[in-house]
Amino acid sequence: MKEIHTIGIAGAGAMGRGIAQIAAQAGLGVVMFDVQPAALVAARDNLDSTFKTLVSKGKITQETAQAAMTGIAFAEDINAFAACDLVIEAIVERLDVKQQFFRQLETVVAPDCILVSNTSSLSITSIAAVCERPARVAGYHFFNPVPLMKVVEVVDGLRSDPRVGDALMELSRRMGHTPVRAKDMPGFIVNHAGRGMNTEGLRVAQECVASFQTIDEIMREQAGFRMGPFELMDLTGLDVSHPVMESVYRQFFDEPRFKPSPLGTVRVAGGLFGRKSKGGFYDYVDGQKQIAPAVPAPRMEGVTKVWISHLHEQGHALAGHLLRGLGAAIQMGSTPDPDCLLVVTPYGQDVSTTVAQQGLDPARTIGLDTFNGFDQTKRRTLMVSPATDPQWRDRAHALLSHDGVPVSVIQDSPGFVAQRIVAMIVNIACDIAQQGIATPQDIDRAVNLGLGYPKGPLTMGDALGPAKVLEVLRNLQAVTGDPRYRPSLWLQRRVQLGMSLLAVSATQRA
Ligand SMILES: NC(=O)c1ccc[n+]([C@@H]2O[C@H](COP(=O)([O-])OP(=O)(O)OC[C@H]3O[C@@H](n4cnc5c(N)ncnc54)[C@H](O)[C@@H]3O)[C@@H](O)[C@H]2O)c1
């Protein structure tokens, strides 16, 4: 492979500009081409002001800025790509337009020029299929905004020469980005792995388990994510994320794990896209997300007597420790007294199923999410069944918020809120590994950097305990009968064999 010195960028939109910036800052020569002269003018102005801002903030020197800006040529004619070593296509997201562009490009560039597409949703193999030299075509998927999103997916099409991908991996590092390598499969890594949070969040909301805001609060404060699913979708814009959900679902031939929600369809139809339309899952006034005030915790006199189900030993111990610390009198023994609050701590089950299995008094029974690894000091999740008496719910709420920690009261749900969303995230990542779309390490890197999750999903699964994640999924599948919760073979086998979710098979390593 010849060395890459000069990069052509087709499309002077948001992505083309971002890629031009990091390439020019890395000292590469850049040629930008767009069919719209106005887009080129806007790109030049935008890049010039970006470099000036970086200088004023002390991020780069005046000399670097000057060299970067003079290193970018702006062209209205595709022939300007003739001397490029690599051309990155970042034009409109339509297969026919991209194929036509690649056909034309091959008549302009040298035979050894690498051709890549920044597509997020189209198959690299199908773009390359119209090329005379498909071996030199690959995917190079950056994220928006490019200079801040430091990860890039290098995608091998079925006919890509692996040395093309190797050269792109190396180039990414020169530009200060972390490359991850993916097979040409729908959504590559990040848009595939990202299905877990949003589709399961929507499913939880559709079951009327909790409000959008409550689901977000639980995901942030208990499960440790920077944003919950609805804040995230409002930020991205549902006009962008709903079609991605539909596209990945269809491309995997209606895989139940990725099933989009009619909650999204109706919002898109109504123009409720999120922040950009000043209304989405939240309302926005002067750019500020409107938050419903927290429901004040009820007050209760006297000591609450609590009996905790032994069904789940770890949950029993955690709940006992927590509730004792909050001043509850814990009743020991297998049969609860008639004046006790009954607490169940299921993994992947709802309160109703647990009540029925254990023959408990439904009016007095509440669920507490004690899944290990979830933070009980920032927020707690209290779950009721349709038969829980409001007085017992309020007593439980008062007890759980006794030390001032906010409590989310949710309706019955197998796997509460955080358990089921996190289990879906881990399960989908496991299946990406099972399908060999990327290495476990690259899956974690891509999700960590591309989606901003606190940990990569496989590391997250290891930290929570693969066996516990599996238990949540199995129970979810049993309670709902829905194949979307079927555990990935990758997860099952690693639990059966006591291996880390990051471990590839011994024979593949050898
Ligand atoms: N915006 C994102 O968040 C994002 C993230 C990752 C990948 N992508 C992908 O990157 C690509 C570009 O996205 P964008 O958001 O920058 O789009 P954009 O609409 O902002 O810009 C596209 C530019 O391409 C130009 N163009 C269209 N057809 C052309 C052609 N035949 N030849 C040359 N120029 C042409 C348009 O004039 C426009 O200036 C798409 O494939 C998109 O899916 C976008």
Notes on the structure:
There is one protein chain. This protein is of the alpha/beta class. The protein folds into four domains: 6-184, NAD(P)-binding Rossmann-like Domain (Rossmann fold, 3-Layer(aba) Sandwich), CATH 3.40.50.720; 192-287, N-(1-d-carboxylethyl)-l-norvaline Dehydrogenase, domain 2 (Orthogonal Bundle), CATH 1.10.1040; 305-405, Rossmann fold; 423-509, Orthogonal Bundle (N-(1-d-carboxylethyl)-l-norvaline Dehydrogenase, domain 2), CATH 1.10.1040. It is built from 21 helices and 16 strands. An eight-stranded mixed beta sheet has the order 3-2-1-4-5-6-7-8, with helices on both faces. Helix 1 packs across helix 3 (62-70). The longest helix is centred in the first third of the chain and has 20 residues, at 37-56. The model has no long low-confidence stretch (mean pLDDT 96). The chain binds nicotinamide-adenine-dinucleotide. The site of nicotinamide-adenine-dinucleotide has 24 residues, from helix 1 and helix 4.
